[in-house]
Structure formats: C-alpha cells, structure tokens
Write a structure and sequence with these properties.
It is built from seven helices and five strands; from the N terminus they run ααβαβαβαααββ. The protein is of the alpha/beta class. The protein has a five-stranded mixed beta sheet with strand order 2-1-3-4-5, with helices on one face. β4 and β5 form a beta hairpin. The model has no long low-confidence stretch (mean pLDDT 92). The structure holds zinc ion. The site of zinc ion has 7 residues, from α5.
Length: 184
C-alpha cells in the first residue's frame, strides 16, 4: 500500500478513536484549554520528541518547530501567537547534537548557489538562518536573542536545553526568568 494511503487509513481510524474518546465532549473541551502554559521551541528532527522528553500530555503545550529550533524570522509569528493568544508563560528552547543544522551549515552557501543556478533566489529565506556549530552555545545565543526581542513579554520565563539524541539526556544549559509575574 502506498505510504500516503497508510496515512489516510490511520487518519480514518483516528477519527473513529477521537469520536469514541470524545463521546461526552470532554476531549474537545480538554484540547481547547491549555492546562500548562508551555511553548516548546525545538528542531523538526524526528528524533526530538518533546512530548516524550518533557512528559507532556494531551493539550499541555504548544510546540513550534523549524530546522535547528533556531530563533529566527520563521519562528517568531508562531511564538507571538503562543504568548498572546495561548497565554504561554514558559518557553523551552531545545537544540540537539547531530542536528542537520550542524552539518548543513557548512553547505549553506553551496546550497544557495545550487538553487541560484536554477534561477531560484533563497538568500532572503536563509538570511537569518544560522547553522549550529556548538549546541550549548547556540542555546545560550537563542535564549538571549528571544529575551532581547521587544515583542517577547517580560512575564515569559525562558529555559534553554541541549538534547542528546544518542542517550536521551536533556541538559539544562541556561535560563532567563520572567521579569514580572509569577514563575510558571
Ligand atoms: Zn536538528
């Protein structure tokens, strides 16, 4: 069976399971309300599974992913929505070892050149995409970058972690507490 058909089959099964779970409307209600005010910013890498790593259950966090989990233009609109619409008060930044951003970083200029040769200019899209050369260093850099952004509210606490995809260890690298309000 083609992969896309397997996915469609799973979606049909999920719909039945969802309706079973939501017989009394509790699941929809649960999903509509954030139980924990958490936003996780992490890499799109499939080995980083924030729900498992942080023990998050249904409806307990917003997760924003991009290549590397870097704080850049691609991530900011989603972040603003989580703090303003979803009232997230705790931001957790996770970068990881063996990241594509560690390896692809060296090839960034070559990739841009290869696309340019086909008439596609990606320089704007990659303008603030920073490769990772040192995982803990990039976590420190991004927590600071997030805190220094004027749109990031003072009542949001920001924590930065490095995740080891070979051992499953999550190591705290840095944190910047909320400047106002209660710590979440
Ligand atoms: Zn990655």
């Amino acid at each position: 069976m083609p992969l896309i058909d397997q996915l469609k089959d799973s979606a049909a099964k999920w719909k039945a399971e969802f309706q079973q779970l939501d017989k009394e409307g509790k699941l929809v209600k649960q999903l509509a309300t954030m139980k924990k005010p958490i936003v996780v910013l992490c890499c799109m890498d499939h080995r980083v599974i924030p729900e498992k790593i942080l023990g998050l259950g249904v409806g307990e966090a917003e997760v924003i992913r991009n290549g590397g989990g870097r704080v850049n233009k691609s991530l900011l609109p989603s972040f603003v929505i989580t703090q303003d619409l979803c009232q997230c008060k705790l931001a957790v930044v996770i970068h990881h070892n063996d990241c594509g951003s560690c390896h692809l970083g060296q090839r960034k200029n070559e990739i841009l050149q290869e696309y340019k040769a086909k008439g596609i200019d990606l320089s704007d899209a990659f303008a603030d995409w920073e490769p990772i050369t040192d995982v803990k260093g990039s976590v420190v850099e991004d927590v600071k970058k997030l805190r220094d952004l004027p749109m990031v509210r003072d009542d949001v606490a920001i924590y930065g972690f490095a995740y080891d995809v070979n051992t499953g260890e999550l190591e705290e690298v840095t944190h910047d507490p909320a400047k106002t309000g209660n710590q979440p």
